[in-house]
Structure formats: structure tokens, C-alpha cells
Amino acid sequence: MVKKPESINLIKKDRGETITQIVNWAQTIGRILIITVQIITLSALVYRFFLDNQLRDIHTNIKQQQLRLESFKKDEDTYRNLQDRISLISSVSNTGTENVKTLKTIIGFAPIGMTFSNITLAENGMTMEASLNSIYPLSIFVNSLKKYDQIDTVSINKIENKTSSATITVGITVTFKQKGVASAASTNK
């Protein structure tokens, strides 16, 4: 009997084993992918809880700050009201000081024997009613007003001679120079 030579075959003829290895490899890779996706999902969930907690803390802090600001609102309104009053008083005080100086100067021009019965002071001028014994002190007073550097125009509105009391009643209107115009004129000289 003749023996057949034995053959050495390095390639396995079993195809079932290759398919089994591919399936095992796919299962291993699939498990790794599933575990990785689950870890990422779980991490995202934990991070979301962390962010929600921070957001809740921020909202709580904002509410506390709003309550704090609302508690200061009444004080802030009082403070602003006082600031407005102070600025108004300051402007009125400055204007009042200037008006008093102007009024004192104009009354200082009045000659002896001239009495004022009515003086109305406005921002751009003044009106006055005065009584005199003669016309000569009136002309001195009007000339003094015309020479005053803060007065633009002087006009006599009425002259009334009261023979019963031997007085002359005069109505005078004075217009002040505008400050912006006066300063512009002085810079052009």
C-alpha cells in the first residue's frame, strides 16, 4: 500500500471560523462604542446638572440683588430729589444775588425825594413807578440809568402830574443787556 504524502496546508479550509472571528471582532468594537457613547451621555447629563445648578445660583443671586436695589430705591429717589432742589436753589440763588445787586444799583441812582411805589423785576428788564416833586430829579435818574452798563434801553411809559399833591408820577421800563450779546460785543472790541 502506498501511502499518500501528507500535505502541509497553512490556509485553513474552514470558512466558518473566519466569519466567527469577524462577528466576535464586530461585537467587541460595538460594545466599546456603546460603552463610549454611554460614558459621553452620562458625562453630558452630569455637566447639565452642574450648569443647571449654576444657573439656579445665578438667578437666586440676581433676585437678591434686585431686592437689595429695590430697598435702596426710596433712598435714591430722596437723594435725586434733594440734588434737584439743591441745583434749583443754587441757580435761583445766583440769579437772585445778581438781581439784588442790579436792583440796589438802580435804586441807588434815585435822587433824594424820589419814592418808588411799584418795582417789578424780570429776567430781561424791570418796570417801576415812582413819584417825584419835580422833573429835574427825573432827568438825572433817567440819565444815570442810560449810563449804567447793564441797561440796554430806558423808556418812560407815562408821566402824570398830580396837582393836588404837587407830585409827578412816572412809569419807567428798563431793558437789560443780554449777557451773551454783551460778552460777544466786548470780545470784538
Description:
With 189 residues, this protein is of the alpha+beta class. The protein folds into 2 domains: 16-108; 109-188, General secretion pathway protein M, EpsM (Gyrase A, domain 2), CATH 3.30.1360. It has 3 helices and 4 strands; from the N terminus they run H-E-E-H-E-E-H. The protein has helices at residues 15-108, 135-147, 179-188, and strands at residues 115-121, 125-132, 151-162, 167-176. Strands 1-2-4-3 form a 4-stranded antiparallel sheet, with helices on one face. A hairpin with a 4-residue loop joins strand 3 (151-162) and strand 4. The longest helix is centred in the first third of the chain and has 94 residues, at 15-108. The protein is rod-shaped and about 180 Å long. 4% of the residues are buried.
Give a quick summary of the entry.
It is built from three helices and four strands, in the order αββαββα.
Structural class: alpha+beta
- The ordered string of helix (H) and strand (E) elements is HEEHEEH
Shape: rod-shaped
Which strand-content bin applies to the residues? 15-25%
By DSSP, the count of extended strands is 4
Low-confidence regions: 180-189
Determine Rg (CA atoms, Å): 52 Å
Report the total helices. 3
Biggest β-sheet: strands ordered side by side in the sheet: 1-2-4-3
* Percent helix: 55-70%
Topology:
Blueprint: H1 15-108, E1 115-121, E2 125-132, H2 135-147, E3 151-162, E4 167-176, H3 179-188
Antiparallel strand pairs: 1-2, 2-4, 3-4
List keywords for this structure.
189 residues; alpha+beta; Gyrase A, domain 2; 2 domains; four-stranded antiparallel β-sheet; disordered C terminus
